[in-house]
Amino acid sequence: MTPSITDSAVKAAIAAIASESATVAEKIQMLIEMAQGFQKKPKTAQDLRNAVSLYYRADELCGEEYPLLKARAQIGMAGTLQTIPDAGTQLLMQAKAGYEEALPILQELASPEEVAEAQMNFGLALQSLVPFNLARITDSIQAYHEALRVFTWEDYPQEYAILYNNIAIAYLSMPMASEREYLRQGLAVQSFEVALKHINLIDHPREYAMLQNNLGNALQYLVSSHPVENNLRAIAAYDEALKVRNSKDTPIEYANTISNKANALFNLPDELEKPEIGNPKNLLKAYNYYQQAWEIFTQHQQMEQAEVISQAIQDLEAEMGIS
């Protein structure tokens, strides 16, 4: 395998830093900044691995003399490890250990914002480990809540929206006995609603659309004795998301939302007062949305999603008696 340009660039940069007459602290800072460059705009997975090796070199240079720089290198490395595509449990466990070691030092020496960002990413790392029984979802939720002490809606609306979105998804993934199923779903719905009190369409359209779309999903699958009412609320939430998402500017997000809306229409009677007459009109609307979503996913090479929609179309054709 021929080394990529970035590989040789990394080697050259490390050699240059080694020969620099800069102080050790300046060299560490340079390594961290280079690593961040790779981490923020990676073109390939190799860029992320290069970032890890630069953070590692910075960490080694720190020794015991530069605790804050060492913590920053560890946090940077942890954040990179968890974004490597198909990061296995080993890399995620390494990331978790990095956060656990660095966070107490950051709490002592860094700004509240820097600590909160690390807690937000730590929460994500824990959440990724939950399916493998290697972390607890309650610890993930706690990390998000810690970050919310700093990332308030007034000062950091984007982070605030993402944190509440993550909290809601964490609640939805909580394993609970079936009779308590409604409880976790209710907590998820509540989390989206709390965030939407402050995140509005005009000032934060993108976050608003994300929260409304995901609120719709939570409502649609809510275990409840009022399924029709929940589906109506879900459709209203999707319509709010569609005030922002459209096929031209945000095609993938738009396709996601219209396919979610189609799912809700599939289960909604045409006339609420006469559910016995069925829902041929809503099925037709759902069919059109699915077709549109399938075209967008296929066009944008989102084959997994296209496959799911293709299956939904087949189910719907069977329901409508189209052969």
From TrEMBL:
Gene3D superfamilies, alphabetically? Tetratricopeptide repeat domain
Tell me where on the tree of life, at the top rank, the source sits.
Answer: Bacteria
Indicate what this protein is called per its UniProt record: Uncharacterized protein
Kindly list the organism's lineage.
Answer: Bacteria, Bacillati, Cyanobacteriota, Cyanophyceae, Nostocales
